[in-house]
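Database export, one record per block. Field names are fixed; values are copied verbatim from the stored entry.
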Amino acid sequence: MAKQVKLTAERRTATGRSAVRKLKTSGFVPAVIYGAKDKAETLQVSRRDINALLSHAAGENILVELEIAGKNRLALVQEVQHAPLGGAILHVDFHAVSMDEVIQADVPLEPTGVANGVKNMGGLLEQNLRSLAIECLPRDLPDVIRVDVSALNIGDAIHVREIPLPSGVTTRIQPDLTAFSVLAPTVEEEPVAATAEAAAGPEVIREKKEDPEAAAAKDKAAPKEQKK
């Protein structure tokens, strides 16, 4: 299940580029929380705290207990914006939830084990789905869904309907979709051997050399040039 962590946030009143720039130089990251019945609220969180939270997360779905002005609000980290260069955190979106509210999330799919068709037959494991769209209560939200693929032989597949889901979790994906499959090994065709004639290259016709003795006889038979 997704681990619930605590994070302190402060309300943010100043907006605009200059305010955000000052905020970042002081060691904070701008954020916003929305959802539930309350209107969206702008926040700021410690850059050090949010970096530590994300670096220790086992998956993409993180449940956070936000402490805002002495009150706690349960939220899901919805989106994290990173700088194109360096990857620094620029902004964080939190989605407020309640413990009795069904939430939707995309959970990573992870294969475990080595497929028999790969290990003993030279096949190739193909993963068609990288994540699974699910619905559940916050307390049942998994970090990742692991699927054992060790029994797969060449030509075998695991479909969405065959994936064992944690208790309280359902999927919104079509049950007949293929999640994992083992493909036959690719056999490279050997190049056709070149014929001896082709290997030897095109025939080159050379001028036939005249026999030395025949050339000498020809010179004797030729009339000498008369002197003028």
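Remark 1: The chain has five helices and 13 strands.
Remark 2: Helices lie at 17-25, 47-55, 116-119, 196-200, 212-221.
End of record.
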